[in-house]
Write a structure and sequence with these properties.
- Helix 3 (about 65-85) runs antiparallel to helix 4, helix 13 packs antiparallel against helix 18 (about 400-415) and helix 18 runs antiparallel to helix 19.
- The two termini are about 30 Å apart.
- The chain contains 19 helices and 4 strands.
- The protein has helices at about 10-30, 50-55, 65-85, 95-120, 130-145, 170-175, 185-195, 205-220, 225-240, 240-250, 255-270, 270-285, 290-300, 305-330, 335-345, 355-360, 375-395, 400-415, 425-460, and strands spanning about 10, 90, 350, 420.
- Among the domains are: about 1-120 and about 205-250, no CATH class; about 130-195, no CATH class.
- The strands form 2 sheets. Strands 1-2 form a two-stranded antiparallel sheet. Strands 3-4 form a two-stranded parallel ribbon.
Length: about 450
């Protein structure tokens, strides 16, 4: 499988296992790739810019054929490579890396570039997602020296997204509560402001999401674990169906998830301050990442980090979070709280298959727009569970237990939340991937001294 540190070569078994993971990923993702888009009715489409040839090739409309053909071609390439290397006993490291990146690009690029090109050929409220569109608008506001929190988005163009035909109406402006709030943490607006400096259509925020999705592979490769395992889990991280859909559809979890994975990898390598800085960045990009904080803190304790170093880590974490939050908090603390905490937890319409949706269907809650006692439920269920998980992690004194406990905690929290979107499952899944990497890495690290001792005794004999 390769050396624990990670510069080994791929054995025959590891190579074929990687091919199996990649082919399985393609087989699962391909049939649904590009399906269930927003029902936009944009009117005339005028292809322009660097993506015009792709838009024309798709018939100037949303088309799944190009994306699925690219995925099938990637599967065919894997099969041909396997046939060519049937008798080969090992492969260089770069081959495994190239295979994962190639399959990820085949799945991610066509759909994402097509939807970005279609948007560039029409209007900014078409062929996008309302969350990423609002993040882009927030970035523009930051560049103009304005506060995205408490801003009125009802006349920003975002209101035209919800009609799907580009029209604006007072009914939509009154109905869509997100037009009066910015529910995302400050890191999104800050990063968006930097990304919006790129020329169109490269300034589309989904391209940043795509880049950060691919960066998730690099974060996995930073772990101390056998090469074959890192390649296989890296393939799952960057090419799973949820991540692929998120890139073109416009769901913005990948940047935060990648930084979260990186934080655990850095911790496993003893880069403690960089680890907490990465987690702080993850939290600034998505509130969900804050659940990882107590588990990461206990991991530092389990590694025997001295108190003065723990204090430095806390200072680094506070500095990164403060740099992102304080400018907006100082500008207007009330609207910052109302947008990110009050609105995010209590105003969204109840959707999905979580506890809130079950209670609505069971008739216990009146309707999807009514109140939902999330804070009380979390206090009675999620908080005691998380406390128990932290106790078990502290007793185990193993790093992988913290990542596994994080997966359980965040899954329960997401289940009891007011909204439960399917793509939220990416968070506990990534936690389990981290746990697997840490588990194997820890054991491989323990085996190395034993193997060395055995070799010394053999030599002495």
């Amino acid at each position: 499988m390769g050396t624990p540190g990670g510069d080994g070569r791929l054995t025959r078994v590891a190579f074929w296992a990687l091919l199996g993971v990649l082919l399985g990923t393609l087989a699962i993702t391909l049939p649904e790739l590009g399906s269930d888009p927003w029902p936009f009715r944009p009117g005339p489409v005028e292809p322009r810019g660097v993506l015009a040839p792709l838009v024309r090739a798709a018939g100037e409309e949303w088309d799944v054929g190009i994306a699925r053909s690219a995925s099938f071609a990637a599967a065919l390439a894997l099969a041909l490579l396997g046939a060519a290397g049937l008798r080969r006993r090992e492969w260089p490291r770069w081959v495994g890396v190239a295979l994962v990146i190639g399959v990820a690009l085949a799945l991610l690029l066509p759909s994402t570039l097509l939807t970005v090109g279609l948007r560039d050929a029409t209007d900014p409220w078409f062929f996008t997602n309302d969350s990423t569109y609002q993040i882009e608008l927030a970035g523009d506001l930051v560049l103009d020296g304005q506060n995205p929190y408490g801003h009125d988005y009802r006349f920003s163009g975002m209101e035209r997204f919800y009609s799907f035909d580009g029209s604006a109406s007072e009914r939509i402006r009154e109905r869509e509560v997100s037009l009066e709030h910015y529910a995302y943490f400050p890191g999104t607006a800050i990063v968006s402001a930097a990304w919006r400096l790129l020329p169109a259509p490269l300034d589309d925020f989904r391209l940043f999401v795509l880049v950060m999705t691919l960066a998730g592979f690099a974060a996995v490769m930073a772990f101390q674990a056998p090469l074959g395992l890192r390649l296989a889990i890296g393939a799952v991280v960057v090419a799973n169906p949820i991540a692929v859909r998120s890139a073109w559809f416009g769901q913005n979890d990948a940047p935060s998830i990648t930084l979260m994975i990186l934080s655990f990898a850095l911790l496993s390598r003893g880069r403690h301050r960089w680890a907490v800085a990465a987690l702080a960045g993850a939290i600034l990009l998505k509130q969900f990442a804050v659940v990882a904080l107590p588990f990461l803190a206990l991991m530092l304790v389990a590694r025997g980090v001295e108190r003065h170093e723990l204090r430095r880590c806390a200072a680094v974490f506070a500095a990164v979070v403060g740099a992102g939050v304080l400018p907006f908090l100082i500008a207007d603390p009330v609207v910052f709280y109302e947008d990110t905490v009050k609105f995010g937890a209590g105003t969204y319409k109840i959707v999905g298959y979580g506890l809130s949706g079950i209670l609505v269907r069971a008739g216990i809650l009146e309707d999807s727009d009514g109140s939902y006692p999330f804070a009380l439920i979390a206090l009675l269920t999620w908080l005691p569970l998380t406390a128990w998980l932290l106790v078990q992690q502290h007793r185990a004194r193993e790093l992988w237990v913290g990542a596994a406990a994080f997966s359980i905690s965040i899954l329960v929290l997401l289940f009891i939340g007011r909204t439960f979107n399917n793509y939220y499952l990416l968070w506990p899944m990534m936690g389990l991937a981290i746990a697997a990497l840490l588990y194997v890495g820890e054991r491989a690290g323990r085996d190395e001294p034993r193997a060395g001792a055995v070799a010394q005794r053999s030599g002495a004999g």
